[in-house]
Amino acid sequence: MVDTTAEGARTTAAAVANAFLDIQANDRSQFPLIDQMKLQKLVFYAHAWWLAHTGQPLFGDDIEAWPWGPVVGDIYGSFKEFGRKPIQGKKANVLTRSGNGPFMKFELPDPPDPEVLSFLKNVWETHKGMSGVQLSNATHAPGEPWTIVKESYGTLDSKPRIPNTLIRDVFRSKLDATN
């Protein structure tokens, strides 16, 4: 479930995923279409670079280390029906409280604010030319957060959480290396 109370979080992972699907729909250039794997990695890279630039989480959802790389479980659940095919005609929902009572409902999240959307468009421009497999391979490189967690746990059977502090520190060092 989404932690919408995460301190400093600007949006939800569902809103980020939906924004990438919208950005893709408006892009008339050539690139591999967004499938489940590509969407997961775009969401991860957006969160990672946001953490590196701001020190705050882009969203409150946990990023977990799954065998094929970083994954937000709720995003996986929203799009698992597509398997390896391009995602078309569907958006991710969030679980929200219905009124003041104990009832919950699924609904579309609010879209990201203009600053976040501009940031996501930059992430898209940087990564759109890569397939999901290529992006996944990049997350498995030595020194990447997913790799550090995998090496620490030895197995990913429990789908451990990748700490935001680890993601922030790894990506901040990439920023420092380019400056």
Termini separation (Å)? 37 Å
Radius of gyration, Cα only, in angstroms? 16 Å
Portion in strands: 5-15%
Determine the mean pLDDT: 91
Query: What sort of overall outline do the alpha carbons produce when their principal axes are compared?
Result: globular
Largest sheet: 2 strands, antiparallel
Give the uncertain stretches in residue-range form: 1-5
Structural class: mainly alpha
Series of secondary-structure elements, N-terminal to C-terminal = HHEEHEEHHHH
- What strand order characterises the main sheet? 1-2
Number of E-state strands: 4
Number of helices: 7
What share of the residues lie within helices? 40-55%
Q: Would you kindly provide a written description of the structure presented here, covering whatever features stand out?
A:
By secondary structure, the protein is mainly alpha-helical. It is 48% helix and 8% strand. The protein contains seven helices and four strands, in the order H-H-E-E-H-E-E-H-H-H-H. It has helices at 13-26, 36-54, 73-79, 114-127, 132-139, 145-153, 164-178; strands at residues 64-66, 69-71, 94-97, 104-107. The protein has a two-stranded antiparallel ribbon with strand order 1-2. A two-stranded antiparallel sheet has the order 3-4. Strand 1 (64-66) and strand 2 form a beta hairpin. Mean pLDDT is 91; it is low at 1-5.
Summarize the helices and strands and which ones pair or pack.
Elements: H1 13-26, H2 36-54, E1 64-66, E2 69-71, H3 73-79, E3 94-97, E4 104-107, H4 114-127, H5 132-139, H6 145-153, H7 164-178
